[in-house]
Amino acid sequence: MMQFETLWKERAGAFWKIALRYFRLIGNSSFLFTLVLTLIFGAYYYSELLKVLPEAFPGIAVITIIASFVIVRSPLRFFLSEADLVFLLPAERNLKDYFNRSLLYSFMLQAFITIVAMVILAPLYQHEMAAGTAYYVFVIAIMLLLKALNIFMKWMELHLPAHRSVAGFVGLRTVATLLFTYFVLVQASLIVVALTAIALVSLLWFVFYPLNRKYSVKWEKLLALDEKQSMKFYRTANLFTDVPKLKQSVKGRRMISSIAEKLLPNDTVYEKLYQKAFVRSNEYLGIYLRLAIIGLLVVVFVPGTIGKVIGAGLFIYLTATQLRTLYPHYSAHVMIKLYPLPEDQKDRAFNKMLRRLLGIQAALFALVTLILERDVITFLVICLVGILTVLFATTKKQKAPPI
Amino acid sequence: MSNSILEVNNLTGGYQANKPVLHDLSLNVNANEIVGLIGLNGAGKSTTIKHVLGLLDPMKGNIRVAGNTFSENKDKYRKQFSYIPETPLLYDELTLWEHLQLTALAYDLEEGWEQRADGLLKEFRMTNMKSWFPGHFSKGMRQKVMIMCAFLVQPSLYIVDEPFVGLDPIGIQSFLDMMVQVKEKGAGVLMSTHILSTAERYCDRFIILHDGVIVMSGTMAELQKQIGRKDATLDDIYIEATRSEK
User: Fold this and answer.
1) Are A250 and B85 within 8 A, CB to CB?
2) Residue A242: per-residue pLDDT
3) Does some domain include residue A129?
4) B106 contacts on A by Cβ (under 8 Å)
């Protein structure tokens, strides 16, 4: 007879053993250096930005939205495996402890993220309210309580059968969290806060809790959630090193795919393959767009030519390091090894696409500054630095992945 | 042997130098011929195929496809054959039609391949799935994609590894018909399979592999003569051949 109490510990332990190995690899990679640089850059301009923030800036609203987002988004982790559908399903009633541990674990992990987010928001809050550290610590404590509530609610939502939509439930707890966070942040009167708190608890008791009693555990939902999260972790780790466990998820993206066919190199076998992988698989496109947008924000909002130029160069380089994980995408594929293709086609195709993608990004940064600032010098400098960064990032020889 | 498309001469090979899997193997596939490669699990069929594909280097001996060895001219060598693997190997990011497109690009196919591709899609009843991704395909459909890509190339040699698993009966018949068709047009086929009754009906010659050595080879009549039973089926011969080897 297997012990269910130790099962959870074994599963979580096994995951963390792998995770720690990846963390070590991440720590050793050169990407970390770029990240630290970005952080310093970000921290400096964050404090600069606070100084020049206009009076009308809706700081509390921004904090409320960011904090609520972090709190409402409650991905739970169960460490289940597909085989459990066969082996553990009959023992569902004995698994209460197993699930409780999972909830506690998920809470601890996300409590940490919540605290980090709140600490980052602290200077903005002090700037807006000047409420003192003690009160802010109290705010953080309330946020953690809200987090715990949301974790419970999410767990109960997961019991919903396929034919009942979760949207209403997510909506309810989002609104409740937003309101409560807002009232606490603006130091609303005690009665308002107390009333909202009562509303929240009754929501949990009368709306969410019955789900738990009425419906059974939805194993496939839990599995999908687990899968999504571990893939997210591996995908992040994959930015630094080659992760063999990474399963591909493919999205058709018809529109973008046909645009990319015209925008990106599409003439050789590898050019076609890389282009399709970039658009359709994993998160490559997402990473590229996200970095382009953040980069754009930096270029737009950071004051001064030097800041803009450094920002542009940094984000182009960051994008290059991230996209380089696409290079070994097909190296385990046997069919491609059988095609009669020249040997250097792969490297040439990859570098060509990378140059095109980074070039588009650089052009975007430069053009937006030109339009907003109407400053030809800044435009030219960003162009120049952009070109140099693109060249620097793409002449590096592609590394073969470790086997 | 000028009309040999595939010629394997005294091949010794495998994964580790001190532990060869194949021992002094010689075989050939001629034009207008389907050769069945038969053997138990672990007999060395897949290793043989990997050597022929150029994925493994021979330790001894050589392999010629249409007269070329792999090391002499990789491109010319690779252009001569197409491969249908046992487990379908597809690109997750490409639709069915894009697989055919990519194949045409990789083998530098002449214009007109599109019509042939349409014909293949119709033959294997997959026209409606042209823009589907492999993620939505069953094992049999995935196998059909591999088969269509291989036939699209129209090479002089087909290397086929256990093609029947997962295919529906109509798919199997279409595949067999097309094999006979390309054979009659002058191609050679090397097919590894465990479905002996089908092999018996379609293959012109057989090579029975056991522990990395060819234990018997020849046409059905020759094999029957070798074991001294005129009415023996391929199953009988196969069991006889693998048992008599100590």
Assistant:
1) no
2) 65
3) yes
4) 269, 339-341
- Inter-chain CB proximity B89 and A335 less than 8 Å: yes
> In this complex, is the C-beta atom of A342 within 8 Å of any C-beta atom belonging to chain B?
yes
DSSP assignment of B23-80, as one string?
EEEEEEEETTEEEEEEE-TTSSHHHHHHHHHTSS--SEEEEEETTB-TTT-HHHHHHT
How many other C-beta atoms can be found within 10 angstroms of the C-beta atom of residue B85?
20
Is residue A269 domain-shared with residue A371, that is, in the same domain?
yes
CB-CB: which of A248, A281, A338 is closest to B83? A338
Q: What is the pLDDT of residue B169?
A: 92
Look-up of token digits 């409650």: A74
Any domain includes A98:
yes
Domain that holds residue A287: 251-394
CA-nearest of B74, B93, B90, B139 to A285 is B93
In this structure, the answer to whether residues A154 and A260 fall within a common structural domain is no
Q: With H, G, I as helix, E, B as strand and everything else as coil, classify residue A42.
A: helix
pLDDT tens, residue order, chain B (246 aa): 457 899 999 999 888 888 899 999 999 999 999 999 998 888 899 999 999 999 888 999 999 998 888 888 888 899 999 999 999 999 988 999 999 999 999 999 988 999 999 999 999 999 999 999 988 899 899 999 999 999 999 999 999 999 988 899 999 999 999 999 999 999 999 999 989 999 999 999 999 999 899 999 999 999 999 888 888 999 999 888 887 654
- What strands, in cross-sheet order, belong to the sheet with B22-30? B22-30, B4-13, B60-65
Provide the token pair at A148.
């715990």
List the single residue in B with minimal CA-CA distance to A272.
B102
The band of A324, judged by pLDDT with boundaries at 50, 70 and 90, is: confident
Q: Does some domain include residue A400?
A: no
The complex's ipTM? 0.84
Place of tokens 């807002």: A182
**Hey, of A268, A339, A353, which one would you mutate to test binding to chain B, going by the most B CBs within 10 A of its CB?**
A339
**Is B89 near chain A, with CB under 8 Å?**
yes
Asked if residues B53 and B83 have their Cβ atoms less than 8 Å apart, the reply is yes
Yes or no: say if B43 and B241 are a contact pair by the CB < 8 Å rule. no
Show residues of chain B in contact with A252, CB under 8 Å.
95, 131, 133
